[in-house]
Specification:
Blueprint lengths: L13 E3 L23 H17 L6 H14 L6 E3 L1 H10 L3 E4 L2 E6 L2 E7 L4 H5 L6 E5 L2 E2 L5 H8 L6 E7 L7 E6 L1 E4 L3 E7 L2 E6 L6 H15 L6 E5 L8 H11 L5 E7 L6 E4 L2 H4 L15 H4 L1 E6 L6 H11 L4 E4 L7 E7 L6 E10 L15 E2 L39 H8 L13 H10 L11 E4 L2 E4 H5 L25
Parallel strand pairs: 12-13, 13-16, 16-17, 17-20
Antiparallel strand pairs: 1-4, 2-19, 3-10, 4-5, 5-6, 6-7, 6-8, 8-9, 11-12, 14-15, 14-19, 18-19, 21-22
Helix pairs in contact: 6-7, 7-10
C-alpha cells in the first residue's frame, strides 16, 4: 500500500465543461513496504484475456487502449469517485482548481451507466440554457453516453469558446428527451458573492471551493463591514448547490468563523497518512509558500456574529465539512434540506512519468463530533424545503443513490434515497423555474433564515417523501435529527443564543 503524503483532498465528482471538482495532491511516495503479494493466478487470467482480444477481436485493438481501459475499469468498479486520469484529464485537473476553464459549466457524475448532472454552475452557458440538477445526459452531439467514462464526457464537452454543442437530456417527470444546443464559453467561476440583506445582516454565497476562495471570502467580509459602517450582527452563509472542491478551502472558510485551533474535520482510512485531523490553523488552511494568513487578520465579530448556514441536496463534500463543523461547534444553525452525503476522500496519485494519475478514494470524512458524512450528509437543525409548497425542484439525488457508493461506517440507520416524483410533482416540474438564490422575495429558505436571525417563527413546508428499504417515508422522520439527536422542527422558534464555543 502506498504511503500517501499530505495531499489536497478533494470534493465531489467531476465538472464537465466543466471542471473536476477536486484538489491536486502532492506526489505520493511509493514504496514496497506493506505491499500485498501480486495475485499471479489472476494476472495470468488477465494476460490470457488480453491475448485473446488481440488475436480474435473483430478489429485490431492497440495495446495501450486495452491497458488504459483495464486500469479505468479497475478504478471505476471501486466506487463512484475513483477514476483514471489520462494526460488530458490530469492537465485539466491542475488548471481547474484555479477557477477558470473552458466549456459549459456543469458538474457531472454517473448513474445507471449514464452521465448525470449534479449541478449546473451559476451564470454559465449550461445554467442559462436550462440544464438542471438531476438531468441525465443521454447523448453528447450524436454520441450516446451509455457506459461512457466521465473523462471521455469531459473531453467531448470541452471545446473552443463560442463553438456550439448539442446535449440530449432525460429529465424526471418529463416523458420526452430534451435537446439543448449550448454555446461553449470560458468559464470563470466567481466562487464567493456577498451583499447586505438588511442593516447588520450579511449574505455570503460560496458556489465552489477553489484555490482563491478563502482570500475572496476575507475580501467580502471586509466589504460587508464597510458597507454596513461597522461589524455585522448576523451572517447567512449559503452553501446550497455547492459541490465542494479543495479541502484547505473548506478549512479556511470554517476558520473564518471558528475560534483558532478548533477541529474542522478528520479523516480515517487504512494507512497512517489517511488518519488525521484538520484544525482552524494556518498549517491546515494555507498552502504553498509566501502566502499571507489573512484569516488571522479578521475582526472579532466574524467569530461571534449570529449565523445560519443554508444547505440542500446539492451541497456536497467541502460544503458538508463546513456545515458539519459549524453545526457541531454550535457556531451556526444549519437550515434547509439534507445534504448530498459525499464523505469520502480522494487523493490524486501521479503515475510514472507524472503525465497521468489515478484518483483514488483513500479515507472517509468525519465531523468534529465524529459523525461520518458518507452516504448520510448533514441533517439541518431546521428542515425547510425549497418553497412553501415543498421541494418543487424534484432534485433529491444524493450519494446514497449512486451505484457502488461507500457505506457509512458509523451510522447504521437506513439510508434515505430519492424516489420517483408523483403525478402532481410531475405537473409542477413541467413549469418549474429555478429559484434565484439570495433574493429574499423569491427565496423561501433564505426568508426562513432571516426569520431565525430576527427571532421570528420559521415557517413549515410540506415534508418531502423519500425511500427507506423500499418504503415511502417522510424524509424528516427518517433523518430529521439535529446534532443532539432531537427532531428538527421547522415550526420551532429560533434559539435565543448562538454563541461561539470555547476553544478546544
Amino acid at each position: 500500500m502506498s504511503n500517501l503524503r499530505s495531499a489536497r483532498l478533494v470534493g465531489i465528482g467531476a465538472i464537465a465543461g466543466i471542471a473536476l471538482s477536486l484538489g491536486l495532491s502532492a506526489l505520493a511516495e511509493r514504496g514496497n513496504t506493506g505491499r500485498n503479494v501480486l495475485p499471479l493466478d489472476e494476472l495470468r487470467q488477465f494476460s490470457e484475456v488480453f491475448g485473446t482480444i488481440k488475436a480474435y477481436y473483430v478489429e485490431p485493438v492497440k495495446d495501450n487502449k486495452l491497458i488504459t481501459d483495464a486500469i479505468s475499469g479497475m478504478l471505476t468498479g471501486l466506487d463512484p469517485h475513483s477514476a483514471y486520469l489520462d494526460e488530458n484529464a490530469f492537465k485539466e485537473l491542475q488548471v481547474n482548481t484555479q477557477g477558470e476553464f473552458g466549456g459549459l459549466g456543469i458538474e457531472i457524475g454517473t448513474e445507471d451507466g449514464f452521465i448525470k448532472v449534479v449541478s449546473p454552475i451559476e451564470g454559465t452557458p449550461a445554467s442559462k440554457a436550462g440544464v438542471k440538477a438531476g438531468d441525465l445526459i443521454i447523448k453528447i452531439g450524436d454520441t450516446p453516453t451509455k457506459d461512457m467514462r466521465l473523462e471521455e464526457a469531459v473531453k467531448m464537452m470541452r471545446g473552443k469558446p463560442k463553438s456550439p454543442i448539442t446535449l440530449t437530456l432525460q429529465r424526471k417527470g418529463v416523458p420526452e428527451p430534451i435537446v439543448l444546443t449550448i454555446v461553449r464559453d470560458i468559464i470563470q467561476v466567481q466562487s464567493v458573492r456577498s451583499k447586505l440583506l438588511e442593516p447588520g445582516v450579511g449574505y455570503i454565497r460560496i458556489s465552489q471551493f477553489q484555490e482563491h476562495t478563502v482570500n475572496n471570502l476575507v475580501n467580502h467580509l471586509e466589504q460587508l463591514a464597510k458597507q454596513n459602517n461597522g461589524p455585522l450582527k448576523s451572517v447567512v452563509l449559503d452553501l446550497r448547490n455547492d459541490p465542494g472542491g479543495l479541502l484547505h478551502g473548506a478549512i479556511g472558510v470554517s476558520a473564518a468563523f471558528l475560534q483558532p485551533g478548533m477541529e474542522v474535520t478528520s479523516t480515517d482510512g487504512r494507512t497512517d497518512d489517511a488518519k488525521r485531523s484538520f484544525y482552524a490553523s494556518p498549517q491546515d488552511y494555507m498552502t504553498g509558500s509566501g502566502k499571507t494568513d489573512r484569516i488571522s487578520s479578521l475582526p472579532a465579530w466574524t467569530k461571534t456574529a449570529k449565523m445560519v448556514v443554508l444547505v440542500n441536496a446539492g451541497s456536497a463534500s467541502a460544503s458538508e465539512i463546513v456545515a458539519g463543523a459549524l453545526q457541531d461547534h454550535k457556531r451556526a444553525v444549519v437550515l434547509g434540506t439534507q445534504t448530498f452525503g459525499k464523505g469520502s476522500v480522494q487523493t490524486i496519485l501521479p503515475l510514472a512519468g507524472q503525465k497521468t494519475a489515478i484518483k483514488l478514494t483513500t479515507a472517509r470524512y468525519y465531523t468534529p463530533n465524529g459523525r461520518s458524512i458518507q452516504a448520510r450528509g448533514i441533517v439541518p437543525d431546521y428542515v425547510v424545503e425549497e418553497s412553501a409548497d415543498g421541494d418543487i425542484n424534484g432534485f433529491r439525488i444524493r450519494e446514497a443513490d449512486l451505484q457502488r457508493h461507500l457505506s457509512n461506517d458509523r451510522d447504521t440507520t437506513p439510508e434515505v434515497k430519492s424516489s420517483a416524483p408523483s403525478s402532481a410533482d410531475q405537473e409542477r416540474l413541467k413549469n418549474y423555474k429555478p429559484i434565484e438564490l439570495g433574493v429574499p422575495a423569491n427565496d423561501f429558505q433564505l426568508q426562513q433564515a432571516l426569520n431565525y436571525l430576527n427571532g421570528k417563527t420559521i415557517q413549515k413546508a410540506p415534508p418531502v417523501k423519500g425511500v427507506v428499504d423500499g418504503k415511502s417515508v417522510d424524509a424528516k422522520d427518517a433523518a430529521g435529527k439535529d446534532a443532539k439527536g432531537q427532531a428538527a422542527d421547522p415550526k420551532a422558534s429560533a434559539p435565543q443564543t448562538d454563541k461561539a464555543p470555547a476553544r478546544k
